[in-house]
Design a protein that fits this description.
Chain lengths: 462, 462
């Protein structure tokens, strides 16, 4: 290590000891003979003092330091007199009296200050993302995201779930949003698609006997980007066999309890309240009700399950029924009669959303596990037998070989991180997000590629 | 839950208690009046007995059971007489005497038996992957992979590393292998690329002050698939600031110690031996030496670091120098004189590989963190200033704003899982792998897409 301690570590216990720190120059104060700098790393900030009589070399080099220079300073830890203690920072009891200073890398003058006090334009922040991430807001957001994912994994592992990776290069089965396509060079004229979710793979894993699956996984949707959508986003994906909706709730509630305890130190009460979709629409005119609107609910974090969604919605333009959740959702047995009569508007699904303060945290359903029922649903939403076979034939085939009853849920990690950090935009929870036009300001992706690359794929631009 | 216990859980402590199990019919033995079935789930196997006098209903339904039917059986746990105990399985002390049997889903006769005793063709195994994963070999491989990743995360989190997600839709910067391309609909004629590794992003995260980064992450290479390569593969990606090669070794060695202890219960000795690339080539004629060849090394797992790789290799066909590791690798200060004289064949890199039993587990390097040095390397490997700017301009720019010294390493998760499981092929460590021709036998990806999808992307097949 080039350092003996981090910039957040030294305190009066280290008094008179030698220490070497590395970090970025956060501030320089030139008091004639004495020069003070604050050096910063991920862990904190330490004041360094350069005294000409202690080290003329260090003092001379210190005169050249500009903001965001990367330095290595060796010296002796000096305990500050009581009245000089800075109580605002953990290292405020000491300063490092420099004996040696090395500039590891100089820096151009940063295009914005590394502080949360002023908020630079998002364009600048995304272009110079490496400067933005040095700001406390972004650093804390990425740290919170890490803590969140770590808490989730500890919980899920403890519950006997297996983390299984599903493919990124997969089959195009467009429904809902558009797929991103990936041309195959080895199979010219054919395409992979990036998964909108691992839905079919997690169901196949249940057929495979995995019993309890989870994954924190990237998903992809080629949408016209509305505010606060990203072409790639991350979800906690869960599926379980031999369970009912109650088991999903009994898993998710203590999971969120643990998340809020570990990340925010807050005890949230469980079980969460539940309301039917019909109630939510009636009472809140929304399927994402914000229970804080209700005067009796004073909690900062108001969770609710919304259950019993309609199974189908009618698409007037295309004059056909569509799935409200997705076509792999099972129906409520109570509504079987409506279903068999073709009275689809009255059929409710065994699907559920978890809503927090008016945000949909996630949604899921008890799935269909029987081939004939699945084929019937495809037919109702207007997929011909041939089309269903072409797109979803592998799922139907899997259902022929002992598919267990199963159910699952998926929660959005980006939004959840934003809520935990009190941030408005999910872009502030993602290290390298895309703009609303779907590009990366830092790398300038997407970009043109060589004609040779397209030739190899058997493609031409129109 | 549809069950009270799993199929691996009941023992004589549960004698005379009621239990309900769910699982797959692994075997049926019809002894006239008595019918025995073994039911199986991820957790184990339990014998169930159907006695007509106990439940005529269950006995009648049991007659219809075929292999891999999914069933739910309720009954009473009967402790077996001592001489009937099956010592081969944890549930061998008991059997479940069925009082109720429900067929949750029938099954076609499986195309191969769910056992490791015979190995079906790989074509069948990949087509019916959901049956293959029910086999002990595949199930254990996925479980081991889960344990491995879980051990890695616990270790890395304990060392203060932050798991940061890097983008999957990124900029095409081809070098080494071909990029997979993703046409952008919102920016017609432009393309994203899937990352060959998060190399540039992890270096940018160091510039951003993240200090200690890791990620278990999918990477993509559009290669002509040789034996045991996959177009998408997973690596443990690590980067640290203010460190030297020694710090990477001091992190990786206890990491592998923990992995082998937790996953295999084996104590591996550290530190690992080291040899230079020159020694490895001389003594083993390989840069991936298998130290077990040496008679003094009797260990089952023989790790070694290979260090001091050449910085460049000469491409005779193209008459130019190439990077041996990658162009972001720093050179050994001892060889600076050769470097400045243009005697590139003599310049060694600060790069290192970890080798286990002749397999490269991972490789890494101390990186360049200075703009001018990085530009010089691009120039040596034949990138024009303009080309370097176009592809890597964002990295060069980041180096202007206080890039710290940093180093990193990446380890292949697929190969490591294969070694831990004693498997030859990485395909057996991946839930849904591609064939050597780069397609998925189960879903039939890649596949043709609608002309409308191509139109939206502004592309036409040639």
């Amino acid at each position: 290590m080039l350092r003996t301690h981090t910039c957040g570590e030294l305190n009066k216990e280290h008094g008179n000891k030698k220490a070497t720190l590395c970090g970025w120059v956060a501030a320089r104060r030139d008091h004639g003979k004495l020069i003070f700098i604050d050096i910063r790393d991920r862990y904190g900030l330490t004041q360094v003092v350069f005294v000409p009589s202690v080290s003329p070399q260090a003092h001379t080099v210190a005169q050249k330091l500009g903001p965001e220079f990367v330095v290595r300073v060796a010296g002796t830890v000096a305990v500050r007199p009581a009245k000089m203690v800075n109580k605002d920072i953990p290292t405020g009891e000491i300063e490092l009296c420099a004996e040696d200073l090395e500039i590891l890398n100089p820096s151009e003058v940063p295009v914005f200050e590394i502080t949360d006090e002023t908020e630079p334009s998002e364009e600048l922040r995304l272009t110079y993302r490496y400067l933005d991430i040095r700001r406390p807001k972004l650093r804390q957001s990425l740290e919170t995201r890490h803590k969140l994912c770590s808490a989730i994994r500890t919980f899920m592992n403890g519950q006997g779930f297996i983390d299984v990776e599903t493919p990124v290069l997969t089959k195009s089965t467009p429904e809902g949003a558009r797929d991103f396509l990936v041309p195959s060079r080895l199979n010219p004229g054919e395409f992979f698609a990036l998964p909108q979710s691992p839905q079919l793979f997690k169901q196949i894993l249940m057929v495979a006997g995995i019993d309890r699956y989870y994954q924190i996984v990237k998903c992809f949707r080629d949408e016209d980007l509305r505010a606060d959508r990203q072409p790639e986003f991350t979800q906690l994906d869960i599926e379980m066999s031999f369970v009912t909706q109650e088991d999903i709730f009994a898993l998710a509630e203590p999971l969120f309890q643990k998340i809020f305890k570990e990340v925010k130190g807050i005890d949230i009460p469980i079980p969460f309240p539940r309301m039917t979709h019909a109630q939510a629409m009636k009472q809140y005119n929304s399927d994402k009700p914000d229970l804080r609107q209700n005067k009796d609910n004073k909690d900062e974090f108001a969770f609710t399950w919304v259950v019993d969604f309609p199974m189908f919605k009618y698409n007037k333009d295309e004059k056909r029924w569509e799935s409200e959740h997705h076509p792999f959702t099972s129906i409520m047995e109570e509504d079987l009669e409506h279903f068999e009569k073709g009275d689809y508007a009255k059929v409710r699904a065994r699907s559920y959303d978890l809503v927090l303060n008016g945000n949909e945290l996630g949604s899921g359903s008890v799935r269909i596990h029987q081939r004939e029922r699945q084929k019937k649903i495809f037919q109702i939403i207007g997929l011909s037998g041939q089309e269903a076979q072409k797109r979803f034939g592998f799922l139907l085939k899997a259902f022929d070989y002992g598919a267990p009853p199963h159910a699952g849920v998926a929660f959005g990690i980006d939004r959840l991180t934003a809520i935990l950090c009190g941030l408005d935009s999910i872009r502030d929870t993602i290290a390298f997000p895309k703009t609303q036009k779907g590009n990366c300001m830092m790398t300038d992706a997407p970009s043109e590629v060589d004609k040779k690359q397209l030739d190899e794929l058997g493609l031409r631009k129109v």
